[in-house]
């Protein structure tokens, strides 16, 4: 099994995961202070605990947002630096997809709507549909007043800190609502499959995803 380091710092959670051999290690802690103060030490400690050197890594995965501006930049820059220096591929994953994957794994959710506070009266919205695997996704930035539950099925899971901003709208349906932060262990799950499929990028292409206005991207 490939050795993959996964970095997810797009929210108040500083989250890391490491795949080596047939065992995964992870660290996930809410720390509102800048993640950069502890991130490098946590990575080195995790690698050391698994008896793994950086030269033994096969790929670096990063949660590339959308989310905290500084947090997303941190994950991407650290992943870029390691990929460049080690001459190994990068794996770019949407932080909204990381959130959705958790609920697909844990609850077999077929439809997940990830909502993240984008500030300035906006939310980041990721809409993910699963069959056996992810079959479709859409990510947009919306003004809060534009959000409506009529766009989603009654079986949809609504997850993330943006749910609080549209609480009144969510109360109109019997929605499944969870406050949740992206977790690197779920990033690792997505990254492992991407690596197997050859869906990697060169370090210079590992860029933060910032959604704004009418901009959106689909898979």
Question: What are the defining features of this structure?
Answer:
alpha/beta; Nucleotidyltransferase, domain 5; five-stranded mixed β-sheet; 11 strands; disordered C terminus
Describe this entry's structure for a reader:
It is built from 5 helices and 11 strands. By secondary structure, it is an alpha/beta fold. It has 2 domains: 4-94 and 182-212, ATPase, nucleotide binding domain (Nucleotidyltransferase, domain 5, 2-Layer Sandwich), CATH 3.30.420.40; 96-178, ATPase, nucleotide binding domain (Nucleotidyltransferase, domain 5), CATH 3.30.420.40. Strands 10-9-6-7-8-11 form a 6-stranded mixed β-sheet, with helices on one face. A 5-stranded mixed β-sheet has the order 3-2-1-4-5, sandwiched between helices. The two termini are 27 Å apart.
Structural class: alpha/beta
CATH class of the largest domain: Alpha Beta
Order of helices and strands: EEEHEHEHEEEEHEHE
Poorly predicted runs are 213-219
The CATH architecture of the largest domain is 2-Layer Sandwich
Shape: globular
Q: What is the fold named in CATH at topology level of the largest domain?
A: Nucleotidyltransferase, domain 5
Number of helices, counting only DSSP H or I runs of 4 residues or more: 5
Number of strands: 11
Helix content: 25-40%
Biggest sheet strand order reads 10-9-6-7-8-11
Mean pLDDT: 93
Strand count, sense and barrel status of the largest sheet are: 6 strands, mixed
Intertermini distance = 27 Å
Number of domains: 2
């Amino acid at each position: 099994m490939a050795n993959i380091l996964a970095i997810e710092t797009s929210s108040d959670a500083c989250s890391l995961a490491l795949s080596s051999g047939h065992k995964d290690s992870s660290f996930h802690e809410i720390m509102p202070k800048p993640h950069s103060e502890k991130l490098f030490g946590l990575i080195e400690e995790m690698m050391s605990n698994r008896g793994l050197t950086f030269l033994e890594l096969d790929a670096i995965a990063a949660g590339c947002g959308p989310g905290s501006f500084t947090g997303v930049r941190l994950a991407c820059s650290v992943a870029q630096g390691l990929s460049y220096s080690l001459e190994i591929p990068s794996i770019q994953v949407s932080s909204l997809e990381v959130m959705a994957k958790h609920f697909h794994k844990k609850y077999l959710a077929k439809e997940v709507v990830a909502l993240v506070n984008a500030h300035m009266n906006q939310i980041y919205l990721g809409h993910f549909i699963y069959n056996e695997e992810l079959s479709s996704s859409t990510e947009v930035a919306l003004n809060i007043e534009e959000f409506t539950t009529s766009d989603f099925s009654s079986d949809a899971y609504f997850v993330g800190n943006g749910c609080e901003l549209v609480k009144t709208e969510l109360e109109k349906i019997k929605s499944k609502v969870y406050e949740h932060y992206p977790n690197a262990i779920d990033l690792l799950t997505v990254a492992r499959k991407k690596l197997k499929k050859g869906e990697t990028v060169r370090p210079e292409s590992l860029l933060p995803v910032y959604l704004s206005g009418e901009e959106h991207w689909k898979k």
